[in-house]
Amino acid sequence: MKYTRRDIYRARDRGLARPEPESNLYMAMFGALAIPIGLFWMGWTAHPHISMWSPIISSVVFGFGVVCVFVSAYQYVAAAYEYHPGSALASLQMFRLTAAGVMAVIADLMCAKLGPHWTLTVLGGIATVFLPVPYLLYIWGLKVRTWSRLSTILAGVVAYFIARYTYRLFFHPLSKIPGPKLAAISYLPEFYHDVVRKGPIIRINPREVHIKDPAFYDEIYAGGMRIRQKDPAFTVALLTPGAMASTNDHERHRQRRGVLSNFFSKKSVTDLESVIQDKVDTLKERFNRAFNEETVLSLPSVFAALTADMITHYCHGESRGYLIAPDFKNNHMEALDSLFTLFHINRFIPPLAHLLSRLPLESMKKWGILSGTIGELVDTRLQTRQRAAEALQSTEKKTIGPMTLFDALTADSVPEEERTVNRLEDEASVLFGAGTETTARTLSIAAFYLAKNQTLLEKLRGELRLVMPSPGSKPTWSQLEKLPLLVSNTFPPK
Ligand code: HEM
pTM for the whole thing? Predict the structure, then answer.
Protein backbone atom coordinates (compact mmCIF):
# COMPACT_ATOMS: atom_id res chain seq x y z
CA MET A 1 0.00 0.00 0.00
CA LYS A 2 2.81 2.35 0.95
CA TYR A 3 4.59 1.84 -2.38
CA THR A 4 1.37 2.11 -4.42
CA ARG A 5 0.54 5.40 -2.66
CA ARG A 6 4.08 6.63 -3.37
CA ASP A 7 3.69 5.78 -7.08
CA ILE A 8 0.30 7.57 -7.23
CA TYR A 9 1.82 10.80 -5.81
CA ARG A 10 4.79 10.56 -8.16
CA ALA A 11 2.46 10.09 -11.16
CA ARG A 12 0.40 13.12 -10.09
CA ASP A 13 3.57 15.19 -9.77
CA ARG A 14 4.37 14.22 -13.38
CA GLY A 15 0.84 15.31 -14.45
CA LEU A 16 -0.39 11.71 -15.07
CA ALA A 17 -3.85 10.51 -14.07
CA ARG A 18 -2.56 7.20 -12.66
CA PRO A 19 0.76 5.44 -12.06
CA GLU A 20 2.26 2.86 -14.45
CA PRO A 21 0.44 -0.55 -14.43
CA GLU A 22 3.58 -2.13 -12.85
CA SER A 23 2.54 -0.47 -9.54
CA ASN A 24 -0.05 -3.23 -9.30
CA LEU A 25 2.64 -5.87 -9.02
CA TYR A 26 3.78 -5.14 -5.45
CA MET A 27 1.35 -7.62 -3.95
CA ALA A 28 2.48 -10.40 -6.30
CA MET A 29 6.13 -9.56 -5.57
CA PHE A 30 5.37 -9.76 -1.87
CA GLY A 31 3.29 -12.93 -1.86
CA ALA A 32 4.65 -15.04 -4.76
CA LEU A 33 7.30 -16.75 -2.61
CA ALA A 34 4.55 -18.13 -0.37
CA ILE A 35 3.30 -20.37 -3.25
CA PRO A 36 6.38 -22.66 -3.62
CA ILE A 37 6.97 -22.52 0.15
CA GLY A 38 3.39 -23.68 0.78
CA LEU A 39 3.63 -26.44 -1.87
CA PHE A 40 6.98 -27.86 -0.70
CA TRP A 41 5.88 -27.62 2.92
CA MET A 42 2.64 -29.47 2.24
CA GLY A 43 4.36 -32.03 -0.01
CA TRP A 44 6.91 -33.09 2.59
CA THR A 45 4.81 -32.91 5.75
CA ALA A 46 1.69 -34.66 4.43
CA HIS A 47 2.58 -37.85 6.31
CA PRO A 48 0.39 -39.81 8.67
CA HIS A 49 3.07 -39.55 11.39
CA ILE A 50 3.22 -35.71 11.17
CA SER A 51 0.51 -33.59 12.78
CA MET A 52 -2.24 -32.69 10.31
CA TRP A 53 -1.81 -29.08 11.39
CA SER A 54 1.38 -28.85 9.39
CA PRO A 55 -0.27 -29.39 5.94
CA ILE A 56 -3.25 -27.30 7.06
CA ILE A 57 -1.04 -24.32 7.95
CA SER A 58 0.96 -24.83 4.72
CA SER A 59 -2.30 -24.58 2.74
CA VAL A 60 -2.93 -21.19 4.44
CA VAL A 61 0.54 -20.04 3.32
CA PHE A 62 -0.14 -21.37 -0.20
CA GLY A 63 -3.60 -19.69 -0.27
CA PHE A 64 -2.10 -16.37 0.84
CA GLY A 65 0.43 -16.53 -2.04
CA VAL A 66 -2.26 -17.41 -4.59
CA VAL A 67 -4.52 -14.52 -3.49
CA CYS A 68 -1.61 -12.05 -3.69
CA VAL A 69 -0.65 -13.19 -7.21
CA PHE A 70 -4.25 -13.55 -8.37
CA VAL A 71 -5.37 -10.06 -7.30
CA SER A 72 -2.15 -8.49 -8.53
CA ALA A 73 -2.34 -10.22 -11.93
CA TYR A 74 -5.94 -9.11 -12.54
CA GLN A 75 -5.20 -5.53 -11.53
CA TYR A 76 -2.07 -5.49 -13.67
CA VAL A 77 -3.85 -6.81 -16.78
CA ALA A 78 -6.77 -4.39 -16.29
CA ALA A 79 -4.38 -1.45 -15.93
CA ALA A 80 -2.15 -2.53 -18.84
CA TYR A 81 -5.07 -2.83 -21.26
CA GLU A 82 -6.24 0.62 -20.26
CA TYR A 83 -9.02 1.01 -22.87
CA HIS A 84 -10.12 -2.64 -23.14
CA PRO A 85 -9.89 -4.09 -19.65
CA GLY A 86 -13.09 -6.12 -20.11
CA SER A 87 -11.75 -8.10 -23.10
CA ALA A 88 -8.35 -8.52 -21.49
CA LEU A 89 -9.84 -9.81 -18.24
CA ALA A 90 -12.22 -12.10 -20.12
CA SER A 91 -9.29 -13.64 -22.05
CA LEU A 92 -7.34 -14.03 -18.83
CA GLN A 93 -10.33 -15.63 -17.16
CA MET A 94 -10.78 -18.04 -20.06
CA PHE A 95 -7.11 -19.01 -19.99
CA ARG A 96 -7.23 -19.46 -16.21
CA LEU A 97 -10.36 -21.63 -16.26
CA THR A 98 -9.06 -23.78 -19.15
CA ALA A 99 -5.75 -24.26 -17.30
CA ALA A 100 -7.67 -25.08 -14.10
CA GLY A 101 -9.78 -27.69 -15.96
CA VAL A 102 -6.70 -29.31 -17.51
CA MET A 103 -4.84 -29.19 -14.19
CA ALA A 104 -7.72 -30.98 -12.42
CA VAL A 105 -7.11 -33.98 -14.73
CA ILE A 106 -3.30 -33.68 -14.72
CA ALA A 107 -3.14 -33.33 -10.91
CA ASP A 108 -5.18 -36.52 -10.57
CA LEU A 109 -2.85 -38.40 -12.94
CA MET A 110 0.21 -36.94 -11.25
CA CYS A 111 -1.01 -37.98 -7.81
CA ALA A 112 -1.71 -41.51 -9.07
CA LYS A 113 1.69 -41.82 -10.78
CA LEU A 114 3.97 -39.82 -8.49
CA GLY A 115 2.13 -39.82 -5.16
CA PRO A 116 1.20 -36.61 -3.27
CA HIS A 117 4.78 -35.85 -2.11
CA TRP A 118 6.34 -35.75 -5.55
CA THR A 119 3.26 -34.16 -7.19
CA LEU A 120 3.47 -31.23 -4.77
CA THR A 121 7.25 -31.12 -5.18
CA VAL A 122 6.92 -30.93 -8.99
CA LEU A 123 4.28 -28.18 -8.65
CA GLY A 124 6.51 -26.39 -6.11
CA GLY A 125 9.38 -26.64 -8.65
CA ILE A 126 7.20 -25.16 -11.42
CA ALA A 127 6.12 -22.35 -9.03
CA THR A 128 9.80 -21.70 -8.24
CA VAL A 129 10.63 -21.43 -11.95
CA PHE A 130 7.88 -18.81 -12.35
CA LEU A 131 8.79 -17.00 -9.14
CA PRO A 132 10.83 -14.23 -10.85
CA VAL A 133 7.95 -13.30 -13.23
CA PRO A 134 6.43 -10.45 -11.11
CA TYR A 135 9.91 -8.99 -10.52
CA LEU A 136 10.88 -9.26 -14.20
CA LEU A 137 7.59 -7.64 -15.22
CA TYR A 138 8.16 -4.87 -12.68
CA ILE A 139 11.56 -4.13 -14.25
CA TRP A 140 10.81 -4.75 -17.94
CA GLY A 141 6.99 -4.59 -17.99
CA LEU A 142 6.90 -1.30 -19.89
CA LYS A 143 9.15 -2.73 -22.61
CA VAL A 144 7.15 -5.95 -22.82
CA ARG A 145 3.92 -4.00 -23.15
CA THR A 146 5.29 -2.18 -26.20
CA TRP A 147 5.49 -5.53 -28.01
CA SER A 148 2.24 -6.71 -26.52
CA ARG A 149 1.04 -8.81 -29.48
CA LEU A 150 4.37 -10.61 -29.76
CA SER A 151 4.48 -11.29 -26.04
CA THR A 152 1.05 -12.95 -26.14
CA ILE A 153 2.25 -15.29 -28.90
CA LEU A 154 5.47 -15.92 -26.94
CA ALA A 155 3.52 -16.72 -23.77
CA GLY A 156 1.34 -19.13 -25.79
CA VAL A 157 4.41 -20.88 -27.24
CA VAL A 158 6.07 -21.15 -23.80
CA ALA A 159 2.85 -22.54 -22.28
CA TYR A 160 2.58 -25.06 -25.14
CA PHE A 161 6.13 -26.33 -24.64
CA ILE A 162 5.73 -26.56 -20.87
CA ALA A 163 2.58 -28.67 -21.33
CA ARG A 164 4.30 -30.83 -23.96
CA TYR A 165 7.44 -31.44 -21.89
CA THR A 166 5.41 -32.15 -18.74
CA TYR A 167 3.45 -34.77 -20.67
CA ARG A 168 6.60 -36.37 -22.13
CA LEU A 169 8.36 -36.44 -18.76
CA PHE A 170 5.57 -37.73 -16.55
CA PHE A 171 2.67 -39.16 -18.55
CA HIS A 172 4.06 -40.53 -21.81
CA PRO A 173 3.87 -44.37 -22.01
CA LEU A 174 7.72 -44.40 -22.07
CA SER A 175 8.07 -42.05 -19.07
CA LYS A 176 9.14 -44.88 -16.72
CA ILE A 177 12.04 -45.97 -18.98
CA PRO A 178 15.36 -44.66 -17.58
CA GLY A 179 17.60 -42.45 -19.69
CA PRO A 180 18.68 -38.81 -20.04
CA LYS A 181 15.77 -36.42 -19.43
CA LEU A 182 16.84 -34.30 -22.41
CA ALA A 183 16.34 -37.34 -24.65
CA ALA A 184 12.91 -37.90 -23.03
CA ILE A 185 11.68 -34.45 -23.97
CA SER A 186 13.41 -33.69 -27.25
CA TYR A 187 15.17 -35.11 -30.30
CA LEU A 188 18.24 -32.95 -29.67
CA PRO A 189 20.59 -35.68 -28.28
CA GLU A 190 19.66 -38.05 -31.13
CA PHE A 191 20.25 -35.30 -33.67
CA TYR A 192 23.57 -34.50 -32.02
CA HIS A 193 24.78 -38.13 -32.12
CA ASP A 194 23.44 -38.88 -35.62
CA VAL A 195 24.28 -35.67 -37.41
CA VAL A 196 26.63 -33.34 -35.54
CA ARG A 197 29.06 -35.68 -33.77
CA LYS A 198 31.96 -36.96 -35.84
CA GLY A 199 34.30 -39.87 -35.04
CA PRO A 200 34.14 -42.85 -32.71
CA ILE A 201 35.27 -41.04 -29.54
CA ILE A 202 32.75 -39.38 -27.25
CA ARG A 203 33.13 -37.80 -23.85
CA ILE A 204 31.03 -39.73 -21.36
CA ASN A 205 31.78 -37.85 -18.15
CA PRO A 206 33.98 -34.96 -16.97
CA ARG A 207 37.16 -37.10 -17.01
CA GLU A 208 36.59 -40.01 -19.39
CA VAL A 209 35.96 -40.72 -23.05
CA HIS A 210 34.35 -43.75 -24.66
CA ILE A 211 36.15 -45.15 -27.71
CA LYS A 212 34.23 -47.30 -30.18
CA ASP A 213 37.12 -48.29 -32.39
CA PRO A 214 38.84 -51.71 -32.04
CA ALA A 215 42.01 -50.26 -33.59
CA PHE A 216 42.45 -48.18 -30.44
CA TYR A 217 43.01 -51.36 -28.39
CA ASP A 218 46.73 -51.40 -29.13
CA GLU A 219 47.00 -47.74 -28.20
CA ILE A 220 45.55 -48.40 -24.75
CA TYR A 221 46.96 -51.85 -24.03
CA ALA A 222 50.27 -50.76 -25.50
CA GLY A 223 53.11 -53.18 -24.95
CA GLY A 224 56.87 -52.68 -24.78
CA MET A 225 58.17 -49.51 -23.27
CA ARG A 226 55.06 -47.39 -23.68
CA ILE A 227 54.05 -46.32 -20.22
CA ARG A 228 50.44 -46.67 -19.13
CA GLN A 229 49.14 -45.85 -15.65
CA LYS A 230 45.91 -47.43 -14.48
CA ASP A 231 43.04 -45.15 -13.50
CA PRO A 232 42.86 -44.87 -9.68
CA ALA A 233 39.11 -44.16 -9.85
CA PHE A 234 38.69 -47.56 -11.53
CA THR A 235 41.12 -49.66 -9.55
CA VAL A 236 39.94 -48.46 -6.12
CA ALA A 237 36.53 -49.94 -6.93
CA LEU A 238 38.00 -53.47 -7.05
CA LEU A 239 38.39 -53.36 -3.23
CA THR A 240 41.77 -55.11 -3.45
CA PRO A 241 44.40 -52.35 -3.06
CA GLY A 242 47.28 -54.83 -2.79
CA ALA A 243 46.59 -56.74 -6.03
CA MET A 244 48.38 -56.37 -9.35
CA ALA A 245 45.07 -55.52 -11.03
CA SER A 246 44.72 -52.52 -8.64
CA THR A 247 48.28 -51.28 -9.12
CA ASN A 248 48.18 -47.89 -10.85
CA ASP A 249 51.86 -47.12 -11.25
CA HIS A 250 53.33 -48.59 -14.44
CA GLU A 251 56.68 -49.65 -12.93
CA ARG A 252 55.15 -51.22 -9.84
CA HIS A 253 52.57 -53.05 -11.95
CA ARG A 254 55.33 -54.34 -14.21
CA GLN A 255 57.29 -55.63 -11.24
CA ARG A 256 54.22 -57.34 -9.74
CA ARG A 257 53.26 -58.81 -13.09
CA GLY A 258 56.81 -60.09 -13.54
CA VAL A 259 56.37 -62.25 -10.42
CA LEU A 260 53.18 -63.84 -11.79
CA SER A 261 53.67 -63.79 -15.56
CA ASN A 262 55.20 -67.30 -15.59
CA PHE A 263 51.97 -68.69 -14.20
CA PHE A 264 50.04 -67.57 -17.24
CA SER A 265 52.44 -68.96 -19.82
CA LYS A 266 51.40 -71.84 -22.01
CA LYS A 267 54.02 -74.05 -20.37
CA SER A 268 52.64 -73.43 -16.87
CA VAL A 269 49.13 -74.29 -17.97
CA THR A 270 50.41 -77.40 -19.74
CA ASP A 271 52.21 -78.39 -16.52
CA LEU A 272 48.86 -78.13 -14.78
CA GLU A 273 47.18 -80.53 -17.21
CA SER A 274 47.03 -83.46 -14.77
CA VAL A 275 45.40 -81.28 -12.09
CA ILE A 276 42.84 -79.96 -14.61
CA GLN A 277 42.20 -83.50 -15.86
CA ASP A 278 41.66 -84.73 -12.29
CA LYS A 279 39.04 -82.08 -11.62
CA VAL A 280 37.31 -82.65 -14.95
CA ASP A 281 37.10 -86.37 -14.06
CA THR A 282 35.45 -85.49 -10.74
CA LEU A 283 33.00 -83.26 -12.58
CA LYS A 284 32.29 -86.05 -15.07
CA GLU A 285 31.41 -88.40 -12.22
CA ARG A 286 29.09 -85.79 -10.73
CA PHE A 287 27.36 -85.32 -14.10
CA ASN A 288 26.92 -89.10 -14.44
CA ARG A 289 25.49 -89.38 -10.94
CA ALA A 290 23.09 -86.50 -11.54
CA PHE A 291 22.03 -88.11 -14.81
CA ASN A 292 21.33 -91.47 -13.12
CA GLU A 293 19.51 -89.85 -10.21
CA GLU A 294 17.68 -87.48 -12.57
CA THR A 295 18.85 -84.48 -10.55
CA VAL A 296 18.84 -81.03 -12.14
CA LEU A 297 22.15 -79.20 -11.84
CA SER A 298 22.68 -75.48 -12.18
CA LEU A 299 25.45 -75.19 -14.76
CA PRO A 300 26.87 -71.84 -13.55
CA SER A 301 27.28 -73.31 -10.02
CA VAL A 302 28.76 -76.55 -11.33
CA PHE A 303 31.29 -74.82 -13.57
CA ALA A 304 32.09 -72.26 -10.87
CA ALA A 305 32.91 -75.21 -8.56
CA LEU A 306 35.30 -76.52 -11.22
CA THR A 307 37.00 -73.18 -11.91
CA ALA A 308 37.13 -72.14 -8.22
CA ASP A 309 38.76 -75.48 -7.31
CA MET A 310 41.31 -75.00 -10.08
CA ILE A 311 42.25 -71.44 -9.24
CA THR A 312 42.51 -72.16 -5.49
CA HIS A 313 44.77 -75.09 -6.33
CA TYR A 314 46.88 -72.79 -8.49
CA CYS A 315 47.06 -70.17 -5.73
CA HIS A 316 48.02 -72.28 -2.75
CA GLY A 317 48.44 -75.85 -3.94
CA GLU A 318 45.16 -77.18 -2.57
CA SER A 319 41.58 -77.01 -3.85
CA ARG A 320 38.78 -75.82 -1.64
CA GLY A 321 36.78 -78.94 -2.59
CA TYR A 322 33.74 -77.24 -4.07
CA LEU A 323 33.48 -80.03 -6.64
CA ILE A 324 33.09 -82.72 -4.00
CA ALA A 325 30.69 -80.78 -1.75
CA PRO A 326 27.28 -82.56 -1.71
CA ASP A 327 25.29 -79.87 -3.55
CA PHE A 328 28.39 -78.11 -4.97
CA LYS A 329 27.69 -75.63 -2.11
CA ASN A 330 28.87 -72.81 -4.27
CA ASN A 331 27.12 -69.50 -4.57
CA HIS A 332 30.13 -67.69 -5.93
CA MET A 333 28.57 -66.71 -9.22
CA GLU A 334 25.72 -64.99 -7.40
CA ALA A 335 28.04 -63.41 -4.84
CA LEU A 336 30.45 -62.21 -7.53
CA ASP A 337 27.49 -60.72 -9.39
CA SER A 338 26.56 -58.70 -6.27
CA LEU A 339 30.19 -57.67 -5.94
CA PHE A 340 30.25 -56.44 -9.54
CA THR A 341 27.10 -54.39 -8.88
CA LEU A 342 28.91 -52.90 -5.91
CA PHE A 343 31.88 -52.20 -8.19
CA HIS A 344 29.73 -49.85 -10.28
CA ILE A 345 28.64 -47.96 -7.16
CA ASN A 346 32.20 -47.82 -5.80
CA ARG A 347 33.47 -46.21 -8.99
CA PHE A 348 31.33 -43.18 -8.32
CA ILE A 349 31.97 -43.00 -4.56
CA PRO A 350 35.71 -43.75 -4.06
CA PRO A 351 35.59 -42.98 -0.29
CA LEU A 352 33.00 -45.77 0.03
CA ALA A 353 35.40 -48.13 -1.78
CA HIS A 354 38.26 -47.15 0.57
CA LEU A 355 35.97 -47.76 3.53
CA LEU A 356 34.73 -51.13 2.23
CA SER A 357 38.25 -52.41 1.57
CA ARG A 358 39.13 -51.71 5.20
CA LEU A 359 36.10 -53.35 6.82
CA PRO A 360 36.88 -55.62 9.79
CA LEU A 361 35.50 -58.68 7.99
CA GLU A 362 36.36 -61.15 10.73
CA SER A 363 34.47 -59.22 13.43
CA MET A 364 31.57 -58.48 11.11
CA LYS A 365 31.24 -62.16 10.32
CA LYS A 366 31.31 -62.98 14.04
CA TRP A 367 28.60 -60.40 14.77
CA GLY A 368 26.47 -62.00 12.02
CA ILE A 369 26.39 -58.81 9.89
CA LEU A 370 27.56 -60.60 6.75
CA SER A 371 25.36 -63.51 5.78
CA GLY A 372 23.92 -65.13 2.65
CA THR A 373 25.93 -65.30 -0.55
CA ILE A 374 28.14 -62.32 0.36
CA GLY A 375 28.82 -64.08 3.67
CA GLU A 376 30.10 -67.09 1.72
CA LEU A 377 32.38 -64.88 -0.34
CA VAL A 378 33.71 -63.32 2.87
CA ASP A 379 34.35 -66.85 4.21
CA THR A 380 36.39 -67.54 1.09
CA ARG A 381 38.32 -64.33 1.64
CA LEU A 382 39.00 -65.14 5.29
CA GLN A 383 40.24 -68.61 4.32
CA THR A 384 42.52 -66.94 1.77
CA ARG A 385 43.82 -64.63 4.53
CA GLN A 386 44.58 -67.68 6.66
CA ARG A 387 46.43 -69.37 3.77
CA ALA A 388 48.36 -66.17 3.08
CA ALA A 389 49.47 -65.94 6.70
CA GLU A 390 50.54 -69.63 6.66
CA ALA A 391 52.47 -69.16 3.40
CA LEU A 392 54.33 -66.17 4.86
CA GLN A 393 55.17 -68.01 8.06
CA SER A 394 56.37 -71.14 6.28
CA THR A 395 60.12 -71.52 6.51
CA GLU A 396 60.38 -74.05 3.67
CA LYS A 397 60.71 -72.05 0.48
CA LYS A 398 59.99 -73.93 -2.69
CA THR A 399 62.34 -73.22 -5.58
CA ILE A 400 61.96 -76.29 -7.78
CA GLY A 401 59.02 -78.36 -9.10
CA PRO A 402 55.49 -77.03 -9.64
CA MET A 403 55.14 -73.82 -7.66
CA THR A 404 51.97 -72.18 -6.45
CA LEU A 405 51.22 -68.48 -6.81
CA PHE A 406 51.78 -68.08 -3.07
CA ASP A 407 55.24 -69.73 -3.46
CA ALA A 408 56.09 -67.10 -6.09
CA LEU A 409 54.67 -64.21 -4.07
CA THR A 410 56.62 -65.17 -0.94
CA ALA A 411 59.93 -66.04 -2.66
CA ASP A 412 63.07 -64.42 -1.26
CA SER A 413 63.61 -62.58 -4.55
CA VAL A 414 60.38 -60.58 -3.94
CA PRO A 415 61.02 -57.28 -2.05
CA GLU A 416 60.21 -57.64 1.63
CA GLU A 417 57.57 -54.89 1.65
CA GLU A 418 55.67 -56.93 -0.94
CA ARG A 419 55.54 -60.00 1.27
CA THR A 420 52.54 -59.13 3.43
CA VAL A 421 49.25 -60.85 4.24
CA ASN A 422 47.26 -57.99 2.66
CA ARG A 423 49.19 -58.22 -0.60
CA LEU A 424 48.80 -62.01 -0.87
CA GLU A 425 45.17 -61.92 0.20
CA ASP A 426 44.27 -59.19 -2.32
CA GLU A 427 46.14 -60.90 -5.17
CA ALA A 428 44.54 -64.26 -4.47
CA SER A 429 41.08 -62.64 -4.16
CA VAL A 430 41.38 -60.99 -7.58
CA LEU A 431 42.61 -64.26 -9.09
CA PHE A 432 39.74 -66.09 -7.43
CA GLY A 433 37.17 -63.65 -8.88
CA ALA A 434 38.85 -63.34 -12.27
CA GLY A 435 39.54 -67.06 -12.58
CA THR A 436 36.18 -68.33 -11.31
CA GLU A 437 33.47 -66.16 -12.84
CA THR A 438 34.93 -65.59 -16.30
CA THR A 439 35.65 -69.19 -17.24
CA ALA A 440 32.56 -70.60 -15.45
CA ARG A 441 30.35 -68.13 -17.33
CA THR A 442 32.04 -68.98 -20.65
CA LEU A 443 31.53 -72.73 -20.08
CA SER A 444 27.87 -72.26 -19.01
CA ILE A 445 27.03 -70.16 -22.04
CA ALA A 446 28.81 -72.56 -24.39
CA ALA A 447 26.94 -75.52 -22.84
CA PHE A 448 23.61 -73.70 -23.17
CA TYR A 449 24.11 -72.95 -26.88
CA LEU A 450 25.37 -76.44 -27.60
CA ALA A 451 22.28 -77.94 -25.94
CA LYS A 452 20.13 -75.63 -28.06
CA ASN A 453 21.94 -76.34 -31.32
CA GLN A 454 22.05 -80.12 -31.83
CA THR A 455 23.75 -79.88 -35.24
CA LEU A 456 26.60 -77.92 -33.73
CA LEU A 457 26.79 -80.33 -30.79
CA GLU A 458 27.07 -83.33 -33.12
CA LYS A 459 29.73 -81.55 -35.16
CA LEU A 460 31.75 -80.83 -32.01
CA ARG A 461 31.35 -84.42 -30.78
CA GLY A 462 32.59 -85.68 -34.14
CA GLU A 463 35.63 -83.43 -33.85
CA LEU A 464 36.34 -84.49 -30.26
CA ARG A 465 36.15 -88.19 -31.15
CA LEU A 466 39.34 -87.67 -33.16
CA VAL A 467 41.33 -87.07 -29.96
CA MET A 468 38.97 -88.87 -27.53
CA PRO A 469 38.11 -92.20 -29.20
CA SER A 470 36.78 -93.60 -25.87
CA PRO A 471 35.09 -91.83 -22.89
CA GLY A 472 38.18 -92.54 -20.78
CA SER A 473 40.63 -90.86 -23.21
CA LYS A 474 42.58 -87.94 -21.79
CA PRO A 475 43.51 -85.55 -24.60
CA THR A 476 46.30 -83.04 -24.09
CA TRP A 477 46.00 -79.30 -24.63
CA SER A 478 48.19 -79.45 -27.73
CA GLN A 479 45.79 -82.04 -29.22
CA LEU A 480 42.70 -80.04 -28.29
CA GLU A 481 43.94 -76.73 -29.62
CA LYS A 482 44.19 -78.26 -33.09
CA LEU A 483 40.40 -78.81 -33.23
CA PRO A 484 39.06 -75.95 -35.38
CA LEU A 485 35.51 -75.86 -34.00
CA LEU A 486 36.63 -76.02 -30.35
CA VAL A 487 38.96 -73.04 -30.66
CA SER A 488 36.82 -71.02 -33.06
CA ASN A 489 36.42 -67.46 -31.85
CA THR A 490 33.33 -66.66 -33.88
CA PHE A 491 29.77 -67.54 -33.00
CA PRO A 492 28.14 -69.49 -34.51
CA PRO A 493 31.44 -71.15 -35.44
CA LYS A 494 32.18 -71.24 -39.15
C1 HEM B 1 36.87 -65.88 -20.32
C2 HEM B 1 37.89 -65.65 -19.56
C3 HEM B 1 38.50 -64.29 -19.26
C4 HEM B 1 38.27 -63.06 -19.80
C5 HEM B 1 37.29 -62.70 -20.89
C6 HEM B 1 39.15 -62.13 -19.15
C7 HEM B 1 39.21 -60.77 -19.43
C8 HEM B 1 40.10 -59.89 -18.86
C9 HEM B 1 40.29 -58.51 -19.25
C10 HEM B 1 39.54 -57.81 -20.36
C11 HEM B 1 41.25 -57.97 -18.46
C12 HEM B 1 41.82 -56.56 -18.54
C13 HEM B 1 41.19 -55.65 -17.57
C14 HEM B 1 41.81 -54.24 -17.66
O15 HEM B 1 42.79 -53.99 -16.95
O16 HEM B 1 41.33 -53.43 -18.42
C17 HEM B 1 41.67 -59.00 -17.54
C18 HEM B 1 42.62 -58.82 -16.57
C19 HEM B 1 43.01 -59.81 -15.71
N20 HEM B 1 42.60 -61.11 -15.71
FE21 HEM B 1 41.28 -61.95 -16.98
N22 HEM B 1 39.88 -62.79 -18.21
C23 HEM B 1 39.52 -64.11 -18.25
C24 HEM B 1 40.01 -65.13 -17.46
C25 HEM B 1 40.95 -64.95 -16.47
C26 HEM B 1 41.47 -66.03 -15.64
C27 HEM B 1 41.10 -67.52 -15.76
C28 HEM B 1 42.34 -65.45 -14.76
C29 HEM B 1 43.18 -66.06 -13.68
C30 HEM B 1 43.34 -67.30 -13.47
C31 HEM B 1 42.36 -64.01 -15.04
C32 HEM B 1 43.11 -63.09 -14.33
C33 HEM B 1 43.23 -61.78 -14.68
C34 HEM B 1 44.08 -60.83 -13.96
C35 HEM B 1 44.95 -61.12 -12.76
C36 HEM B 1 43.95 -59.58 -14.61
C37 HEM B 1 44.63 -58.28 -14.24
C38 HEM B 1 45.87 -58.12 -15.12
C39 HEM B 1 46.70 -56.90 -14.80
O40 HEM B 1 46.35 -56.03 -13.99
O41 HEM B 1 47.76 -56.82 -15.43
N42 HEM B 1 41.52 -63.77 -16.08
N43 HEM B 1 40.98 -60.16 -17.82
Answer: 0.65
